Amino acid sequence: MPENEVPLSTAAVDVAEVASGLSAEMYRQRRLGPEVFEAVLGAGFLRHFVPAGFGGRDGTFRQLLPAVALIGERCPATAWCASLFASTPRFLALFPQAARREFWADGPDTAVVCSVLPFGEAVAERGGWRVSGRWPYLSGIEFAEWAVLCAKVLVDGEPVLKLVAVPREACRVEETWFSVGMQATGSNTAVLEDVFVPAHRVVGRETVFAGRPVDPAGEPAAPVAPLPAVNGLTFVVPALGAARGALALLSAHVARKVRDAPVLPGAPGAQGNLATWESVLARSSAEIDAVGLLLERIADVADRGDVTPAEVARGARDAAFAIDVLTGAVNRIFRAAGTGGQVADGLLQRLWRDVNSISTHQALQFEPAARNYTRTACEPAG
User: Fold this and answer.
1) Three-state secondary structure call for residue 356
2) CATH top-level class for 110-218?
3) Centroid of chain to Cα 134
4) Gap between the Cα atoms of 181 and 185, Å rounded
5) Domain 227-261+271-377 top-level CATH class
6) What is the pTM assigned to this prediction?
7) For residues 98 and 96, what is the distance between their CA atoms, to the nearest angstrom?
8) 355 close to 242: Cβ distance less than 8 angstroms
9) Tens digits of per-residue pLDDT, 145-194?
10) For the chain, what are the domain ranges?
11) Closest Cα partner for 186 from 34, 355, 382, 368?
């Protein structure tokens, strides 16, 4: 990192402050505020994983994790978008050199969104492909300059999955995001209608899944971890921050109750609830700390490169386990906060809704992660 650049975790403090002041309005508007996006961009999230040859930082997941979690303590939706805006450019680094020159023609702070699910179809045409489809759940697409989308093509009658990169203006965006949680992510739907995509902006989906550049001569300087090794990490870290934020709110709430709550005849009062609060705070803080350690291990393995199938399976297991633990901790905290924690515009209820919303993401479901982990663990050695 150049000497004059501020570390990401330090810059994230300002992002969290801006997002905190605007979070209630962003949730009502169901989208990230422009000021918040500018703060995320200015902090260096978009250039974090961009190769140094294109002006980026060649950053690591271990550097990204605390920065995203810190923002998540105040606004999980902003943390979610920051995590995705930072992580998705890793995919661009796997495209041919000609495409990379397009992506980062104006510098390393290119905003890109991505869907690796095959919600579209592509038909071969001279020099490229014609692509049509509808891709939902593209967080922050309002601010994107490029979209990387997955389309199915037929080769000898068999489906093959491709990732196509298109300028944001080639997409029509439909407002379809009306979720009860993570409302401010603006995770709307992109629509392509018979859009031509030149061949140099099309790669096989397996390229991203393997972290393998299609242009070895232009291989990125930093290793690109396979998508399955880090996919869960990208989505669960905002929930880690939210859980830490919820824990801090409950701690302050309990301190006020013990100090200020009046003693009323015939009511248990603060002292009567003290054992419950002590148990909730101790158990929840231990669980949240343990999850932090698990996620750091996933990040360290990804940053090392050369991730083994066993480590991929373990990381997916740990990410799915982590969201289960975090959801349980936040639900326990929310219950322990009582009626005072359920204020309609209060931060605690947003953290509670957001963590429960994150827990439904398909990349964080424990059963498929457990199945893959067990199959990998039970494979004969050698």
Assistant:
1) helix
2) mainly beta
3) 21
4) 9
5) mainly alpha
6) 0.94
7) 5
8) yes
9) 999 999 999 888 889 999 999 999 999 999 999 999 999 999 999 999 99
10) 8-91, 110-218, 227-261+271-377
11) 34
